[in-house]
Specification:
Elements (H helix, E strand, L loop, with lengths): L1 H11 L1 H9 L5 H8 L3 H4 L10 H10 L1 H12 L2 H8 L3 H7 L5 H7 L8 H10 L11 E4 H8 L3 H13 L3 E5 L2 E4 L5 H23 L2 H15 L2 H9 L7 H6 L4 H15 L4 E3 H8 L9 H20 L3 E8 L2 E8 L24 H21 L7 H13 L7 H26 L8 E2 L14 H9 L5 H15 L5 H4 L19 E4 L4 H16 L4 H14 L1 H7 L1 H5 L2 H11 L5 E3 L6 H5 L5 H14 L13 H16 L4 H14 L5 E4 L9 E6 L21 E6 L8 E2 L14 H4 L9 H5 L3 E4 L27 H6 L3 E2 L10 E4 L11 H4 L2 H8 L7 H5 L1 H4 L6 H11 L3
Antiparallel strand pairs: 1-3, 2-3, 4-6, 5-6, 7-15, 8-10, 9-10, 11-12, 12-13, 14-16
The protein binds a DNA duplex (15 and 15 nucleotides) through helix 12 and helix 19.
DNA sequence: CGATCCCGCCACATT
DNA sequence: AATGTGGCGGGATCG
């Protein structure tokens, strides 16, 4: 029924449909709607390939193409899908054939295909099981939901269960942090302990389970005081702030999930039937009470079981007992936990048997572990948890007590990103074309450094483009050390930190292109990126932090990342390579404009980069384009690269080469590419425009500023890409120390998909002025910088972003929203995945790229994005 | 026909 | 009021 309705709806009132999806993509919708009503279908869900079922239905109905898509979709790999999506399907949809879609449609969507278990697998596939310790991957519910083509509600089911096992934690509204399985054993251990307390007794009997069922339930009740049980179970969450905690119905699903797992851990047989579990889990106890209640409980258990199954912790079996064959699940996960109960506190990493992964990687997590322990022990409640509660309120609350720090950090980052995003969107919308984005760290910089490191970063920033030369020198040297993430130890000194070449965005993956980085940098960066990328999609949000730490390195590293450090890049690289393909570094064509470095004006650089791109792409960039526009050609290549990168194999080598090459040629521009976690969803493309090679430095954490002029294109999966280009200009304009900022200014936050919606293009006025601001490096912190800052740090800093600031230093920056169609001036296109194309196309302004070129200065158009788009396309000549 | 469990309404929480 | 969460159970689909 729904389907029909919608289908109908769509034609009639696209808008209606939109509401659902649209909410997310605000920016886009307005524009598109007018253009292509059809979009509705698309729109709702960003991802073409995995639209909501309904949407799918509609689409499929609309066009056969969709079906194919879906089929493909089945294949899984969002990535693949995305690629596929390249095809202009979306457009087609519009066209849609009515051909008897219905029949096909119906067939397709088998219930199984929509199963929670499958969905969960897809979800899990997006993130690395063992993410680097430092990285924090943030998960945007909206984004994931759209990518996976399901309603958000379903994601909650998954996330809630994952959260119960601490595989993820809620950071903020709509945002979760992916932790991976590093702590899983710890968590299980804790649960086991708790389970023994609660259910241990019962378990004893257990083998007989069948009979026992009832008894079980009963006993349990009797034996264990509910209160205790609960506490234990809840441990992590609610208790703390008892007050608030319970207000909500407490997340029964989470608690249920924990209890369910406990049953397995306590059970001798490791097999638990749903009946028993349901009975035990029915708090009320009064058993039977409602048959309906029991029934509902069982339903929930199925939900949980599906997720646990996807995690490989349990599998379904059937127990035949007296009563007959009953559905049951068997625990197939780890049984013994290293630290095991022996010592409750097992946390200590040192003694901890757990794989180093935990320790090293998890360093940050350890905290969590602690928390857990606590939780194990009731005592725990006292401590942090309360805070948690508080926090929650404040930030919207992470449920999990532990990791607060991280969470905060994440949340901050996220917030920033979100802020940026919003701003961007706003800007986009608002015609104030000229508005510049300035994401400066606000004075509140201190925030930046949630993590230790703040300082370093800034310096880096300075590097700004203009100073590239300086930077180079500095950066190269300094950077090297910083690079360390991989090798850092070698250098010994962390000083480098500041200069990191990259920007990290909390959001999903980033795609960065940097102008010649020095070898060192490159290498390091690459690895990093690679890592990120490797993560598969995982990289996501997590990346930024990680990167930051690493980069910022020394300082940062200390606490959390130590491990990483130790494990040098090599590992990472290998890892990365093997794993994923993420990062690509594209060796730039040697083109070096080496001199660029020397050249004060970064101006040269940009062109170079562009060229490089072109070369890479093979597309001849238009000379004019040189500035930036040329990007389009890149797209294809990039994409390819992307895909390649993903491949474990190649990436590494390529990277290495690149790095080497780079090394040779200090100036050569390089690109970093970070895949988005899932792949498709979003990309960020960042490349340094003019700058000299060194130019790009990002402070890891602090980073707020990017000194290098960069263009970042965050692409949400869907379509929006915001692209920002900063013109090389820098120096002059920003007298301010920021130089760095001023120069580079582009950022995108694609963190969550949302950003995507509004593509933004920012160009400094154009041209680069070679001037370098002498003081570029100055504190980025200073508010003065008008230019954009992209550093995650900034983001964290909280509202630091000043998007609005129209002018940064002297440069006028223009924001342009890039619409998909029109290409972005530079690389944007490349960035866009096929799917984007579709979107873009729709709008119809494809050819625009040319127009864009001007972006830099000219673009100041005030018109709304749409208008802009139109204008652009129309006025391309501009 | 029982086992599964998708789907999405709707209440409650949060913003 | 809008939006985020997530309990809940009708009823469709699977086996």
């Amino acid at each position: 029924e729904n389907i029909f309705d919608r289908s109908r709806m769509a034609p009639k009132t696209p808008i209606k449909n939109e509401p659902v999806d649209l909410s997310k993509q605000k920016g886009c919708t307005p524009e598109r709607n007018p253009i292509t009503p059809v979009k509705l279908t698309d729109r709702p869900q960003p991802d073409p390939w995995t639209p909501t079922a309904n949407l799918k239905m509609l689409v499929s109905a609309a066009s056969p193409d969709m079906r194919d898509r879906e089929k493909k979709k089945e294949l899984f790999r969002p990535i693949e899908n995305s690629e596929q999506s390249d095809t202009p399907d979306s457009l087609q949809y519009d066209m849609v054939d009515d051909s008897t879609v219905d029949e096909f449609e119906k067939q397709r969507p088998s219930r199984k295909q929509k199963s929670l278990g499958l969905l969960c697998q897809k979800f899990l596939a997006r993130y690395p099981s063992y993410p680097l310790s430092t990285e924090k991957t943030t998960i945007s519910l909206d984004e994931v939901a759209s990518i996976l083509g399901v309603e958000r509600r379903r994601i909650y089911d998954i996330v809630n269960v994952l959260e119960s096992l601490h595989l993820v934690s809620r950071v903020a509204k709509n945002q979760y942090c992916w932790h991976g399985r590093h702590n899983l054993s710890q968590t299980l251990k804790t649960l086991q302990e708790a389970g023994e307390l609660q259910y241990g007794e019962l378990m004893t009997f257990q083998h007989k389970e069948q009979d026992l069922d009832y008894k079980f339930g009963e006993r349990k009740k009797e034996t264990i005081p509910d209160t205790q049980d609960r506490q234990l179970l809840d441990f992590s969450e609610p208790d703390c702030t008892s007050a608030s905690a319970n207000s909500r119905k407490d997340k029964s699903l989470r608690i249920m999930s924990q209890k369910f797992v406990m049953l397995f851990l306590v059970s001798k047989t490791k097999i638990v039937t749903l009946d028993i579990a349901a009975k035990i889990l029915i708090e009320e106890t009064q058993d039977t009470v409602d048959h309906s209640k029991f029934k509902t409980k069982v339903r929930r258990l199925y939900d949980i079981a599906n997720v646990l199954t996807s995690l490989g912790l349990i599998k379904k079996v059937h127990v035949t007992e007296e009563r007959g064959r009953k559905p049951a699940f068997k625990w197939i996960g780890p049984v013994e936990f290293p630290g095991k109960t022996d010592e409750p506190r097992g946390n200590n990493p040192t003694s901890d048997p757990l794989p180093r992964t935990q320790r090293g990687v998890c360093a940050p997590y350890q905290i969590c572990a602690t928390g857990k322990q606590r939780f194990t022990r009731h005592t725990s409640f006292n401590g942090e948890q309360p805070c948690e509660g508080t926090r929650r309120k404040v930030s919207s609350e992470p449920n999990s007590p532990r990791q607060e720090r991280q969470d905060e950090y994440c949340s901050k980052v996220i917030n920033l990103a979100a802020v940026c995003r919003q701003k961007i969107e706003e800007d986009t919308r608002n015609p104030s074309t000229t508005s510049t984005l300035s994401l400066l760290p606000v004075p509140g910089d201190s925030d930046f450094c949630v993590n230790p490191l703040p300082q370093a970063v800034f310096p880096m920033v300075q590097a700004d483009v203009p100073n590239l030369a300086l930077l180079n020198g500095v950066s190269s040297q300094t950077l090297h050390p910083s690079m360390p993430a991989a090798s850092k130890t070698e250098n010994g000194k962390p000083t480098l930190l500041p200069s990191q070449p990259f920007l990290c965005f909390p959001s999903s993956s980033l795609f960065m292109l940097c102008g010649g980085l020095q070898e060192n940098n490159l290498r390091e960066t690459l690895p990093t990126t690679g890592e990120v990328g490797n993560r598969n999609a995982e990289a996501q949000a997590a990346v930024p932090p990680t990167a930051c730490q690493k980069r910022s390195s020394h300082k940062c590293t200390s606490p959390s990342a130590p491990v990483d450090d130790e494990e040098p890049a090599a590992k990472k690289q290998t890892m990365e390579q093997s794993d994923a393909p993420l990062s690509l570094v594209v060796p730039k064509k040697p083109f070096e404009s080496p001199k660029a470095e020397s050249i004060p004006g970064s101006g040269c650089t940009p062109s170079v980069h562009l060229e490089a791109f072109h070369l890479d792409l093979a597309s001849p960039a238009a000379p004019e384009a040189a500035d930036k526009e040329s990007t389009k050609p890149l797209d294809s290549q990039e994409q390819e690269k992307w895909s390649q990168n993903k491949d474990p194999d190649e990436p590494s080598p390529g990277k290495e080469h690149i790095s080497k090459e780079n090394a040779n040629q200090p100036f050569l521009p390089q690109y970093l590419y970070v895949q988005p976690t899932s792949g498709l969803s979003s990309f960020n493309f960042l490349f340094s425009a003019n700058q000299a090679p060194g130019a790009i430095s990002l402070a890891a954490r602090q980073l707020p500023s990017l000194s290098v002029p960069c263009v970042v294109v965050p692409s949400a999966a869907m379509g929006s890409f915001p692209v920002v280009c900063s013109p090389p200009v820098t120096g002059p304009l920003s007298p301010v120390p920021d130089g760095s900022f001023s120069a580079a200014a582009s950022m995108n936050f694609s963190v969550s998909g949302l950003a995507s919606t509004a593509p933004v293009f920012i160009g400094t006025t154009a041209v680069v002025t070679p001037k370098v601001s002498p003081t570029p490096s100055v504190d980025p912190q200073q508010p003065a910088h008008p230019t954009l800052h992209l550093s995650p740090v900034l983001a964290r800093s909280c509202g630091a972003l000043k998007l609005d600031s129209p002018v940064c230093m002297g440069h006028p920056v223009t924001l342009l929203k890039l619409q998909q169609p029109s290409s972005t001036p530079l690389t944007p296109k490349s960035i866009r995945p096929a799917r984007h194309e579709a979107f873009f196309k729709t709008p119809g302004s494809l050819g625009d790229p040319v127009a864009w070129k001007k972006n830099e200065g000219n673009q100041t158009r005030n018109a709304s994005s749409v208008q802009r788009r139109l204008e652009i396309s129309s006025t391309s000549p501009d």
